[in-house]
Amino acid sequence: RAKADGSGCLRFFAPESDSRMQQRRALESDLRRAWAARDFQLFFQPIVEMKTRRVSCLEALLRWHHPERGWVSPETFIPLAEEMGLIVPIGEWVLTEACAAAARWPGSLRVAVNLSPVQLAHIGLAEAIAAALRRTGLAANRLELEITETVMMKETPATLATLERLKGIGLRIAMDDFGAGYSSLRNLQRFPFDKVKIDRAFTAGLGTSQQSAAIVRAVTGMCQSLGMVSTAEGVETETQLAALAREGCSEVQGYLFSKPVPAAQVGALLARLDGLKVG
Ligand code: C2E
Ligand code: MG
Ligand code: MG
Ligand code: MG
């Protein structure tokens, strides 16, 4: 914001924004170094099928532990990686690591990988995915891609062609964070989604807000009519779980079942959850 500093000149940058810029530069160079060292981890969070109350899929979530700052949120470093042109190689690493992990799980389990819009627009995506499957031996129908709707804003015929090609080899495609941001029903018609993940803001309102319940009911009903799976994100309480069961939601994910865990803990997690009948 421009402000007068008494010298008769306008300062366009307050000192805070200078230091914020410096912080950002520092984080960028740390991120570059972390990537060079492959200093990332993938965590996995289970997704539970409502009907059977068993884990059907695990979502891969990228983790970066910074030597001084501790855990940096992907909401912070993914946009940086996108701007720095690092998201394509990092995303390929995520795909390969996720497929390699899933290849060691029981064959009934799928893995879901988040895709940046930058990756989706990238010409080499389908080939990178095919390579990750080939290298790890994971069957294509055990890999699911999660795409947020911002992607659709940049829709090109190439995006649609890429999604169709990936579906053609057997992958599933999920719309992530449905209802947050620029949700458009037209996108559900235009793109070949298998699944809609209902944003956790709606789950959070269940039990307290009639509106949230009505919206969840409408979305799950629509998914059912369109032959899509509906997954509720951010399920934290038994009350929310019961409401989601009532509203006909097909899958649930959230801290009620488990926080995301390192790959090495997935076995123990599955033993705990699949022995357990929640609700
Ligand atoms: P997302 O794909 O919507 O992932 C769900 C987020 O909700 C995760 O945050 C997860 O830890 C969190 N979560 C799960 N259950 C609960 C719950 O019950 N309560 C609450 N409050 N939160 C819950 P996380 O891991 O911090 O990731 C944030 C976002 O960063 C993801 O949102 C995704 O958009 C992005 N992201 C994460 N990993 C990757 C990646 O490998 N590639 C790309 N492109 N994006 C990623
Ligand atoms: Mg996701
Ligand atoms: Mg989400
Ligand atoms: Mg999200």
From TrEMBL:
It comes from the Bacteria. Residues 24-274 form the EAL domain. This is Diguanylate cyclase/phosphodiesterase with PAS/PAC sensor.
